[in-house]
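Objective 1b. Sequence-to-structure analysis of T9SS type A sorting domain-containing protein.
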Amino acid sequence: MKKTMLCLIGSLALATGGMAQRISPSVLAAGGGSARTATMSLDWTVGEAVVETATTSTRLYTQGFHQPLLQVSEPPTLKVEAAGYSFTIAPNPVATNLTLGIAAPESSPLKLLLTDMNGRQYSLPIVPANTTSTQIDMTTFPAGIYLLRIGKTDGPQLKAYKILKTQ
């Protein structure tokens, strides 16, 4: 009888302990928060005393509550028929002048839009029709990563390039 009662109490204790566990992560911290948009989620804490990262040639090991998740995707572009259009960008990374080579099946002007990673947009001069090469002066822009979008003046975007501006 004692053995049966002991087994019953032990089983109840294990079942209660198992139900007390949570699958969702939680943390006790001095401060922090969470923010979400349609395309991004950001969680942060303040006051985590010890956080360390160790890397090998094939692995990344981190310590702490928040673990890194890096998702890289192409910038959104409209699905358009850009048949026959060909662009070349050189040099990339660029310090002074960026050369844009253009091979187009039709003679139409092109619009260029340069955007930094903070979302600031810089309008560039319209590229006239029948132009095969143009220079973009990058000396006035601070070092950083930019997105160069090329499109028709009367239509959608044709192509986007990631540009690295150096000192």
